[in-house]
Design brief:
single chain, two-stranded antiparallel ribbon, 3 helices, 41% strand
Length: 182
């Protein structure tokens, strides 16, 4: 897949949806999400799904850092679906933003430089005024599924087991059982 025509900068965001239940009152539920925003990427001659790689431990560490430990709640990955005796969880929304050249220049000039210099060059492409006229487009995939093995990793892995996420077992006769590690 070639870069989008006119795109000078890309940003990827993954939203992870989950549900919290109060252990003292399981009917007290709250739907939550956290966003994982990746660093800006300049376009290359070939952008493919493989050009952005995610390791399981990166994802688990993201969850562990961004979800507070709370021994008073159970958590479940949102969006459980059963198809042909297979469990999956439609819990991810993936957004890819592509910025035009002028917006890309503005973003890159104004991002944190990790230096003591706080003065930033003024950037405007408006004649007799200040501002940016550019383009930006979004592509959103909602309800991207993880398989039940990935859900089990969230529940059992040492990195995230303290977050009290459920794991699920499916039986043709009994349906789905919701279980917790702790």
């Amino acid at each position: 897949m070639a870069p989008l025509e006119g795109a000078a900068l890309y940003e990827l965001k993954i939203r992870f949806h989950y549900v919290e239940q109060q252990i003292s009152n399981l009917s007290d539920t709250t739907h939550k999400y956290i966003d994982w925003t990746f660093p800006y990427r300049l376009p290359t001659s070939s952008i493919t799904p493989e050009s952005i790689s995610l390791e399981a431990d990166q994802f688990l560490n993201f969850l562990a850092v961004n979800i507070d430990e709370n021994p008073n709640v159970y958590r479940q990955v949102k969006g459980m679906q059963i198809t042909q005796a297979t469990l999956s969880h439609a819990c991810l929304d993936i957004t890819l933003m592509a910025a035009g050249q002028n917006l890309s220049t503005y973003i890159l000039l104004n991002q944190n430089s990790n230096s003591l210099v706080t003065d930033r060059p003024e950037f405007s492409n408006i004649d007799n005024g200040i501002g940016i006229l550019s383009s930006r487009s979004f592509s959103v995939l909602k309800g991207v599924k993880i398989n039940n093995f990935s859900n089990d990793e969230i529940a059992f892995n040492d990195i995230t087991r303290h977050l009290n996420f459920a794991y699920f077992e499916f039986d043709f006769d009994d349906g789905v059982d919701t279980l917790y590690v702790n």
